[in-house]
Amino acid sequence: MDRQVLTLFLHRYRGSIALVAMASVLINALVFAGSAYLLLVYDSVLPSRSVPTLIGLFGMLLLVYAFQAFFEAMRGETLLSVANGLHDDLLEAVHHATVTRSLRSGPGPMPDRPDLERDDGLQFIRDLDAIHGFLAGPGPLALIDLPWVVVFMAVLFALHWWLGLTALAGTLVMAGLTIWSNRRTRAGSRDLATITGQRAAAAMAEIRFGESALAMGMADRLIRRTLAWDGRYIAAQTYLARTVSRFGGASRTFRMLLQSLILTVGALLVIDGQASGGVILASSVLSGRALAPVDMAIANWRSLVAARAGWSRVVIGIATWQKPAPRTIVLDPPVAQVSLRDVWVAPPGSTRFAVPQFAVQGVSLTLKAGQVLALVGPSAAGKSSLVRAMLGIWGAARGEVRIDGATLDQWDSDRIGRHFGYVPQTVDLIDGTIGENIARFDPAAGSDTIIAAARAAGMHDSILALPDGYETRVSAGGGALSAGQRQRIGLARALYGDPFLLVLDEANSNLDATGDAALAEAIGAVQQRGGIVVMITHRPATLGPATHMAVMQNGRLIDFGERDAVLNRVQSVPQAPPREVAA
Questions:
Q1: Does this model's pTM top 0.90?
Q2: Residue 101: inside a domain, yes or no?
Q3: Quick check: 291 and 258 in contact, CB under 8 A?
């Protein structure tokens, strides 16, 4: 998969890559101008003392350097455009992989990627940044210029075989330093990426649970936990920095030594009458230019290793995602029913499909327009898993979910999502205004639809009482809003656009009597306009709006039907073992 994706992008940017290759040929060819200028000055101009010849040669050298600067700029801009293009091409897939990673693999490690366990979930984005940073930096230039080392070696051999042999020996030493540096930094870069994610996750937990930690005397322990990750991070970063610094310093020092050694060999050749004075300086410049790409490659080896490791992770992350093609046939908005047929749901990350691994086992039921289902049962009975499958958050391992007869995959996810409303157990708000959160950040949202959703949730007057009303900004955690306010704003967001299917997962857990009344009124309004409501509840007082009731236990639907009938059955045989009832 890694090679296939790389081949795809090489084909996509083949024109830019060809332009970079052409510019590199011209740049490295023009490098010989400096050595030729030194050779001509020392072997021709100085003996003849011809000022016009010197001025003419210098003018030509200026022209060559101007062309070289132009080609350098063109090559750099082209590589930058490739880096930006690659970033833009991968950005959507990377963010999709970031968002859906926990839905595919659960909270533990990804399959075949144990190094991604327990990070803050942003590793793919950091990897993409590392790839872009490497491509936009000097690292690729060093790799592109590396093959020219052979050409410079050939020229040095042409000047004199002793000069070429000395430069070749130095190049082999530099290559050995590069290989050694690669081996020493590869594992360190992988460990640093893992520790960076785990350190960020620990810091986010420290912030998220700061209030509870302070109240229960856990703050110091959480801080010490984060500091422990900081210690590992500094240790890993220090190891990498020290390794790169030592190899980089050794490389630069050896390159200067090699240039001095070539000058010494050239001087011996001049003394022996086998070379001219210009050859000494020309060979010194050529050897420095030949070893520069090797030196630069060592200096940028850390970013290369990070980009290489990041590329592998990104390819694995996006392997399961493919942007769906726009559907030529757009289905009508749902108006009739929601049906589940033998639905089995396994939590993300489940590696085996044994029955105990399934949170939902063989559930079948049908809800029609205007019906309100109360989904009840003990904790861990599979209620939340069932509604996640109903909304398409978790895919069904077996069976199917149909909306008006069409399976979920026959709808564009964004289009069908407009007809769903969902209030999870924990309501999360996004940085922005209250109005934007209610409107689901729809840029085309009108004030009337936002206010209508807030009124339906009984929040309009409460929002107006805030300092900036609907323009009041909230943080990701909800800021100064109470838990009940956040839950009712979440309800308003779920009601935005008059969705056909409204799912409430204990949406009244933080509501007072006024909030309960507003929730019941909202459920009644959805029912009256022909929508479907599914509410998970543990409070008998909320069963009033329900027309139907479903009882779950151990992942199975043990009773389903009209509310009063199910209540009578449950109350009439309180001691009887659960029995499975066909929907």
A1: no
A2: yes
A3: yes
